[in-house]
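Try this one yourself first.
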């Protein structure tokens, strides 16, 4: 993983991390996270503050 810092409109800087997601190098911001899709088992990148009803890694998302 490689880290780099960029400027943000807020007071805290956003860190960019390069990681492998499904075998593809992907830049992930510090306000994002990698989760596994419950149905396809593939990794996806979503915001950390994503509600459970909008998160494909939860049963709630697939039962609505």
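Now uncover the answer:
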């Amino acid at each position: 993983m490689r880290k780099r810092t960029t400027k943000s409109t807020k007071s805290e800087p956003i860190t960019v991390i390069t990681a492998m997601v499904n075998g593809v190098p992907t830049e992930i911001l510090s306000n994002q996270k990698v989760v596994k899709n419950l149905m396809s088992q593939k990794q996806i990148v979503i915001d950390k503050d994503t509600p459970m009803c909008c998160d494909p890694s939860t049963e709630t998302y697939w039962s609505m």
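Discussion: The mean pLDDT is 87. Residues 14 and 27 are 12 Å apart (CA to CA).
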